[in-house]
């Protein structure tokens, strides 16, 4: 009985030792599995990170459209190039990656790439330099690059034009000159310049800011509101509430009245984009003849003014009134020269006639004194000198007018044939006036020299 109990105890001890060994082996097996899983996971994460690095490195140098917030708070998308990428260790999604871009068409100094930074010699920090060392933006905020389409560039098309300072300014296309050259008008200054195609970026439907988006939508709605119809001859027309003026060749120059003023009207019109020689309006198809200022005579009734207006016809009321004033002055002078007819006038004319004739026959005719002759010569010489001076001033003004017409003719040689014809006609008239003035100046000079020579001879 004792042996059996001892053997039973030994068996229980052996079984307990076997269970502990099995549990320890199972524990080691599970630990090995966990270590293998951690290694696989870290290896997978490393592979993902390496793959992201490869993708981002391949993206550097690609073109895109990146948003830029201006100092006024407006956000607009501009053409840019991905300059560099910044991948942190804890980022696994490419959409969260920060990239630095350089703008291709900078519109302000903050967007302009720093030339010293690109060469590696800029001594300022990224935040201290006035130019751009790269604009940081999320990759998810980038848009696809859009190739510029020059086929839709037409008159009144919005565009960006590169200036000498390296910045791009908004402008409006005025005319296509051929050979990839465009004639554009700057939206800010109103100046017209000629640019090549590589210095022009058509905006088309691109919006540089939120204001551009709203303005493009309003312009599209306005264009849709215009109804198209067919005229009797089959030509297509557009019905709108705008008044269309036909181009008319004017007989007088726009702003001709400013020769007596400081010319502020012409300066304001030039600021607003008016080109001399063209008609008014958006398409330069408006009136060229200036609006006539009608001045009615002072102290006259409305009926009298209306009568003068109806009788004058094409002649202005002011000219008509001036002509009447001249006639009235002549009439008054004539009345002053005529003596009043009375009995005393009759007696003086008839009774004193014989005595006056007798005195006239007895007394010898007085010769003008030397003082009177010298005074008359001085007066004539002064008049000639004054006339010579006035003719010289007229010649200067006429030459300046001819130079202005020549410059205007060169500017509008390929744009407005009607205006060019008008300017040529004016140049012909001004040239004839100049010839007459020069001939008059020559005659006056000869007269002055003649009097000087006569005076020298009279001394001897």
UniProtKB/TrEMBL annotation:
In terms of superkingdom, the source organism counts as Eukaryota
**A single GO molecular function, which one?**
zinc ion binding
Residues of the region (Disordered) are 1-22, 209-228, 362-384
| Keyword check for Nucleus | yes
Q: Where is the G-patch domain?
A: 261-307
SUPFAM superfamilies reported in the protein's UniProt record: Tudor/PWWP/MBT
Q: Residue spans with biased composition (Basic and acidic residues)?
A: 10-20
Biased composition of type Low complexity is found at 215-224
- Compositional bias of kind Polar residues: 370-383
The cross-references to InterPro entries, in alphabetical order and at most eight, read: G_patch_dom (IPR000467), Znf_CCCH (IPR000571)
Q: Which terms are listed as keywords in the entry?
A: Coiled coil, DNA-binding, Metal-binding, Nucleus, Repressor, Transcription, Transcription regulation, Zinc, Zinc-finger
Can you tell me which residues the record assigns to a coiled coil? 395-454
Matching entries from Pfam families are given as: G-patch
Q: Where in this chain does the record put each C3H1-type domain?
A: 109-136
> Which residues form the C3H1-type zinc fingers?
109-136
Which function does this protein serve? Transcription repressor.
Query: What name does the UniProt record give this protein?
Result: Zinc finger CCCH-type with G patch domain-containing protein
- State the species of origin: Parasteatoda tepidariorum
UniProt lineage = Eukaryota, Metazoa, Ecdysozoa, Arthropoda, Chelicerata
